[in-house]
Structure formats: structure tokens, C-alpha cells
Design a protein that fits this description.
CATH superfamily of one domain: Ribokinase
Largest sheet: 9 strands, mixed
Number of strands: 19
Number of helices: 17
Structural class: alpha/beta
CATH architecture of one domain: 3-Layer(aba) Sandwich
CATH class of one domain: Alpha Beta
Helix content: 25-40%
Length: 505
């Protein structure tokens, strides 16, 4: 008998025939990323309620168990489970919950593990829909009583992507979480901030990804030849931060400049479904920023970039006057400063003096020729930089990041975060620093990882006293972003929540 069923119709027909023979059907559903002893107990107890055990697994694209999950792809998980004699049929469910498969086979029993006896066990939030489905087909819902094992915990501890030193960090953070309930604090902060009135100001950038196949070096010239295949255009600059945070705040305003109406229309359409108030000011001499990246199609490695913008200040009276009039009405200002002329000296002075809470990510790069340094802000409640930007700003290439960040003026920069790529990040609150390692070791695309970390960290600033929680949220956001090519997708607060829960198991 073939255990792995790939067709809905075939599965339904087989189960229907078995029911006609008087067989009772038991359905279990889950990710089953790593089959362990707990699963064996679970399957045994589940099957004891009937005759035929059907195991439905969550398809890869619907797995949301946090960072670096699933460990094994759906084809591998199907193969593992098909080898167990306890299981009669295995099916990959192409949906976010099991309600569809319940309606399809109409099992006598739908069985979940002991963790689902409590509301907290339903991390994905799908059980309510599944309970309605099993009730509709006149089946029963059961939970097993066996000892609970956690695949996530086993993966974190035994098959970890952490370096050995960082495993000690993970153990400490879990221990800390028993005293300082990070998940409870996380939810409390979200309730606190969702009604706040927040302004995001920064450059809008269109990121064009040109995918090519490298052909090699021509015989007569010292250049690289490539064959163009296709391109994608993503919304970059401050827009990913806006998009990521739009599902947190009810009152979010974007302030920026633009030139061409067609580009304004693109941004408006992009944010149409989000709770964002657009205050985009048209300026005739402004240059809409395009950054064209050329990438190896096979591994997404970048070959070179072409920028389209002017390295000059674009002071606009309307933008300045809007800030002057409205700054005090915002609970927080989040600045995405790419150094391309929008955030000039006059603007920074106004922001530093009038903002209730001011956060800024100041990028120093080849595009602004290294002139966009963080000390142009006289006062900040939260400063976010990467390590090279920090070292350049303080003219220190030798000392440890931990020592440099400690020496940042407490009065000028109450909170500071330094992102360090594969070396994780450091977060400073007053005179105390917190370190969080990189939470993934296999990035697809690092563009925008620092922006993601900054956006979510900014939201938590001044809303919690837990610097460790802020650092964890930022690190998770960065780790999630590097698994996304370009800005083809965005991070929801639910993604952060699930990853935090997974990390602390």
C-alpha cells in the first residue's frame, strides 16, 4: 500500500472506501520537521482511537515556526513519516491550516498534542478554524496525554545554527526569560504602541535588481561579460520600514519628496492597503532615486551597482514648515537617512530640538561619498548604525565595538544599536550593552537587513525598559529579512512573535 498520497481525490477515495468497510479514521496534522520520540507517542495514542491514521503535514510555504524553519523540506518530511508502520497515509496539505483536509476526508477524530490543551499552544492561531471544521463533519477533537517534546527545542539545542559560544548565550536568554517574561512584555509593548502617532521621514528609493548569467572575460578586454535574463523593481529606501511597521501602528505618516507623478502613483499603489498617511511633496528639481543592482542569477551575488541621483541638498520650505508645525503632535519620529539630500542640516537641527522621541538610522556609504555621518544629529533618543559607520563616525578602527558604543555620549544618544552582520548586533541603553548573535548563517540577500532591525527596534524604544527584548526583536527582524531577496516580501509583527517564541523554547 502506497502511504504517500499526492492527490486530494485519491486520498478522499481511499478514505471513503475504508469508511464503507467500517474503519474509523484518525487525522493528525503538523509540521513534523524533526521526527522524535514525542511524535511516536503522539501517533500511538492518536491511532488508539481508531483504525486508520492519516498524517497531514504543512507545506513548506505555510510553515511559520520562526527562524530557519523548516529544517527539512516537505518531500523529506513525507518520506520520514512514510517509513513509520504506525501511519497508514501521509499527505502534504497545501494550506495554512487543516480545515480543508478535515472537510475532505471527514475523519472520526482530529487529534492534537498535549500543548493544545492550553490556548498558548496554538501558536499559528489555526485551531479555531479546525475545530469548526471537525464539528461540521460530526467528528471529535481530542488531545493526547503523553509527555510533551518540542521539535523546535531539539533543533535549537542539538541541530543549532548557533556557534558553540552562542549556544551559551541562548541558554542564558532562556533562563532570563523565565524571570523576565519576554513574550508577555512583547505583547504588552504592542498594545502600548499601536495607538501612538508616528512619523517616518526619509528618501524613497527604487531598487532595480537585474539578474544576469556571467559569461566570463572577453578575449580582448579586461571586463566581465554577462547575459541579461530578467529584472525586478522593489520599493526601497524608507518604504520597507514603512511597510514593516504599518501593521503595528494605527496612525503612521510618511513624509518625503518626489519628482515624477508616475513614481508617486507607484508608491501610493504600493501602500494602498496599509494604514499609512502619505505626505509626499513634489519638487521639480528633486531626482527620484534609482539604484540598479546587477546580480548573478544563480546565487544572487552582486556584481556591481549603478546609482541615479544627485549628491546635493534638496531643501524644501513646504517640508520644513510641515515639520515645524506638526512635530510636537507625533509621539515618535523615525528617520531613515540615506544621505541623498533629503535630510539636510536645517532639518536635522529641527528634528533634534522639536521631536518628542527621535530615532535615526544614518547611512554612510559610497552613494553619499562618506559625508553622511551620525554626528550631524545633535541629540537622538535612538541611534542605529552598522559597524563601519560607527567606526568612521568616531574615527576608531582598532577598539572593540563594545568599548566604542559604551563611550557614545549618553546625553546625545540615550540608546544605540550597532548591527554587525554575521557578528550579530550590540545594543546600548544608558551605560549597559547587550549582545545578540546573528540568528541565521545562510543569508540570501543582506540588503535591507539593518533597516528591518532598525524599524522594529525603533518601535520598541521608550516603550519598554528591557534592552534585551529590544535587541532580540531587532536581531530577529534582521535574520528574517536576509531570507528575502530584495524587498519582494515584508516582515509582519506576527513573524517576529513566532520567531521569538521559537527562540525561547
Amino acid at each position: 500500500m502506497k502511504k504517500v498520497i499526492l492527490s486530494k481525490n485519491l486520498l478522499r477515495n481511499k478514505i471513503t472506501n475504508l469508511k464503507r468497510k467500517g474503519k474509523k479514521i484518525v487525522l493528525v496534522h503538523g509540521v513534523f520537521d524533526l521526527v522524535h520520540l514525542g511524535h511516536i507517542y503522539y501517533f500511538q495514542e492518536a491511532k488508539s482511537n481508531g483504525d486508520i491514521l492519516v498524517v497531514s503535514i504543512t507545506a513548506d510555504k505555510f510553515v511559520n515556526k520562526g527562524l530557519n524553519k523548516p529544517l527539512f523540506q516537505e518531500k523529506e518530511r513525507l518520506k520520514f513519516l512514510s517509513q513509520l508502520s504506525l501511519i497508514d497515509f501521509v499527505y502534504c496539505n497545501d494550506a495554512k491550516d487543516a480545515s480543508g483536509i478535515i472537510k475532505l476526508i471527514k475523519p472520526n477524530f482530529y487529534v492534537k498534542g498535549p500543548d493544545y490543551k492550553k490556548k498558548e499552544g496554538d501558536e499559528a492561531g489555526n485551531l479555531g478554524t479546525e475545530l469548526k471544521a471537525i464539528k461540521k463533519v460530526k467528528g471529535k477533537f481530542l488531545t493526547t496525554s503523553n509527555v510533551q517534546y518540542s521539535s523546535t527545542n531539539i533543533i535549537n539545542e542539538k541541530l543549532s545554527y548557533f556557534k558553540s559560544d552562542d549556544l551559551d548565550w541562548l541558554k542564558k536568554i532562556k533562563k532570563d526569560s523565565t524571570k523576565m517574561n519576554y513574550l508577555f512584555e512583547f505583547k504588552k509593548v504592542l498594545e502600548k504602541i499601536k495607538k501612538q502617532n508616528v512619523l517616518i521621514i526619509g528618501e524613497i528609493i527604487f531598487d532595480e535588481y537585474n539578474y544576469v548569467d556571467p559569461l566570463g572575460k572577453p578575449s580582448k578586454e579586461n571586463i566581465l561579460s554577462v547575459n541579461f535574463t530578467n529584472k525586478e523593481t522593489f520599493f526601497g529606501g524608507c518604504l520597507p520600514v514603512v511597510k514593516n511597521l504599518s501593521n503595528i501602528y494605527k496612525n503612521l505618516t510618511l513624509l518625503s519628496l518626489y519628482n515624477k507623478k508616475s513614481n508617486f502613483d507607484k508608491v501610493s499603489k504600493f501602500l494602498r492597503q496599509d494604514r499609512v498617511k502619505l505626505n509626499l511633496i513634489r519638487k521639480k528639481d528633486y531626482i527620484d532615486i534609482f539604484k540598479r543592482r546587477y546580480l548573478n542569477k544563480k546565487n544572487f551575488s552582486k556584481i556591481f551597482e549603478v546609482y541615479n541621483f544627485k549628491n546635493k541638498d534638496f531643501f524644501d520650505d513646504r517640508l520644513f514648515n510641515y515639520l515645524k508645525k506638526n512635530l510636537k503632535s507625533f509621539d515618535k519620529v523615525i528617520v531613515c537617512d540615506f544621505g541623498h539630500g533629503l535630510i539636510n542640516e536645517k532639518i536635522t537641527k529641527l528634528l533634534s530640538s522639536k521631536s518628542k522621541v527621535l530615532c535615526a538610522n544614518i547611512q554612510t556609504n559610497s552613494g553619499n561619498r562618506g559625508f553622511n555621518l551620525f554626528d550631524k544629529y545633535k541629540k537622538l533618543d535612538f541611534l542605529c548604525l552598522d559597524e563601519p559607520e560607527l567606526r568612521l563616525g568616531v574615527r576608531d578602527k582598532e577598539n572593540k565595538v563594545e568599548d566604542i558604543i559604551k563611550n557614545l555620549s549618553v546625553k546625545k544618544y540615550k540608546n544605540a544599536m550597532i548591527t554587525r552582520g554575521v557578528d550579530g548586533l550590540n545594543f546600548k541603553k544608558d551605560n549597559k550593552t547587550t549582545y545578540v548573535p546573528a540568528l541565521t548563517t545562510k543569508p540570501l540577500d543582506t540588503i535591507g537587513a539593518g533597516d528591518a532591525a532598525y524599524g522594529f527596534a525603533s518601535s520598541f524604544i521608550n516603550n519598554t525598559n528591557s534592552s534585551k527584548l529590544i535587541a532580540l526583536v531587532a536581531a530577529i527582524a534582521g535574520a528574517l529579512k536576509v531570507q528575502i531577496v530584495g524587498h519582494s516580501n515584508f516582515i509582519k509583527i506576527e513573524d517576529i512573535s513566532r520567531s521569538l517564541r521559537s527562540l525561547l523554547k
